Amino acid sequence: MKMVAPRGALSEICPSGLRSGAGPVPLGGLIRSLPGPLQRNLAHHSPAARAHSPGRRRHDVSREGSTPQLAIVADQYDFVIGVDTHAASHTLALITAGTGAVGQQAQFPTSPSGLRRAVDWIERHTHQSPTPIVIDSAGSYGATFTEQLSATGLTVAEAPDVAATTRRRRGKSDAVDAVAMAQAARSLDINELCWPRAGGDRTALRVLTVAREQMSGERTRAVNALTALLRTVDPGIDARRALTTTTIATVAAWRTRSDNATLAVCRAEAIRLARRIRALDAELAANHTALHEAVTAQAPQLLALPGVGAVVAATVLLAWSHPGRVRSEAAFAALAGASPLPASSGNTTHYRLNRGGDRRLNRALYTVALVRMGHDPRTRDYVTRRTRERRTKREIMHSLKRYISRQLFRTLNGTHPATSTT
Predict the structure, then answer these.
(1) φ and ψ of 187, to 5 deg
(2) What angle do CA 404, 409, 410 make, to 5 degrees?
(3) Domain extent at residue 244
(4) Which pLDDT value is given to residue 164?
(5) Phi/psi at 133 (5° precision)
């Protein structure tokens, strides 16, 4: 069977044939009708043949803009740069996007002058053509460099994961890691590149959220230590059950005794732990107030949603970051680990839990779902209906988290009212 050129291709290769009203023409006849040199070039797909075809389209991809479908990084850019970041220095490696050939490599200190020289190096070796720069630890060691590159107008993305097999085969060094990051990015669809989170006002939220996690963890450890101490030694407190706020306040008000050396040491340690717990409670309350003020200033629409408080809103806002970072509702659900994965076989249709994504964001969705299941009438009606359909509690929770992620994404993008969707 002969292959037939589509009419759009005919207009590019043989415009005179199109004007004459000719119908579809076999490809072999079209190529044989061309001049000899051009015929050979087209037949062998040489650079000369590509020069006669429309050029490769370039896309200036911004963090807040949409990107075309099925646009592979290697097809859209001339170069890709990988950056392996550390506290004292950053290592940069440039590769040719089309072939993956390794080009120039350099290492720069993380001082202000060193980062400026790194930007100059990038512009000089890429000839100022649009080039994606994939940075490892863009939110920590590479945060300052990421902000500087973004302010310069360069395209910055977070480095993709490098397969363990690749690491074993290539070994380990800063330059090798930078090359591996660039190689991993060149085969991705542009839509699969992960844009760094925004700085500015979001930085305050990030600092408050991290501080809250540290204080919450310290409080949990202090409560566990105090519980273990009170259950090991008998200081006159019933610690068979979980410690209450009243019990902790009572222990914090104790006075040390010197009649028994062992008991005196135990009481002193119990007092220290109880007072530390109360101090952390006060710090957590102040942190919550600061988070509420920050979220109210940046995204007050989140606080109008049922079950969404300041801590949850801050977590969601940090994950979403800015318009364009997450391209769709489905991508946001995948980021949250709320997109069910198919696990069907034969006549059984089933979906399993997605254990990937941002686990902090997933925990925030779980918190919202629990609150709504207890207090939101529409959610309670939904749970009742799904239970009658013989759905398990886990399956219902999966569905709720997916609905909540969709609502949060639409609310942040300004495309959905602040009302419950379940």
Answers:
(1) -95, 0
(2) 100
(3) 201-295
(4) 59
(5) -115, 110
Residue numbers in the chain where pLDDT is lower than 70 = 1-70, 163-168, 415-422
Q: Are residues 148 and 79 in the same domain?
A: yes
Alpha-carbon span 328 to 335, nearest angstrom:
11
Q: Give which of 315, 338, 324, 309 is closest to 405, Cα–Cα.
A: 338
Residues 309, 258, single domain; the answer is no
pLDDT at 358: 87
DSSP state of 348: B
Split into its structural domains, the chain has a count of 4
Question: pLDDT, tens digit, for every residue of 215-234?
Answer: 999 999 999 999 999 998 87
| Contact call for residues 335 and 324 (beta carbons, < 8 A) | no
CATH number at residue 187: 3.30.420.10
Strand partners, 155: 132
Q: Do residues 141 and 85 lie in contact, with contact meaning Cβ atoms separated by under 8 Å?
A: yes
Alpha helix ranges (H) inside 237-325: 245-252, 261-298, 300-303, 310-320
pLDDT of residue 197: 80
Give the helix/strand (H/E) hosting 132.
strand 132-135
DSSP one-letter string for 54-119: PPPP-----TTS---TT-BHHHH-SEEEEEEE-SSEEEEEEEETTT--EEEEEEEESSHHHHHHHH
Q: In the Cβ-directed half-sphere of 355, how many Cα atoms lie within 13 Å? A: 1
Q: Do the beta carbons of residue 211 and residue 288 sit within 8 Å?
A: no
In a domain, 344, yes or no: yes
Q: Which two tokens stand for residue 124?
A: 């000089």
Residue 30: what pLDDT?
Answer: 41
Identity at 243, one-letter amino acid code: L
Is 180 in the same domain as 285? Answer: no
Of 320, 417, 317, 305, nearest to 371 (Cα)?
305
* H-helix segments, 327-417: 329-335, 359-375, 377-388, 393-412
In a domain, 376, yes or no: yes
For residues 105 and 156, state if they share a domain.
yes
Tokens representing 414 are 């300004």
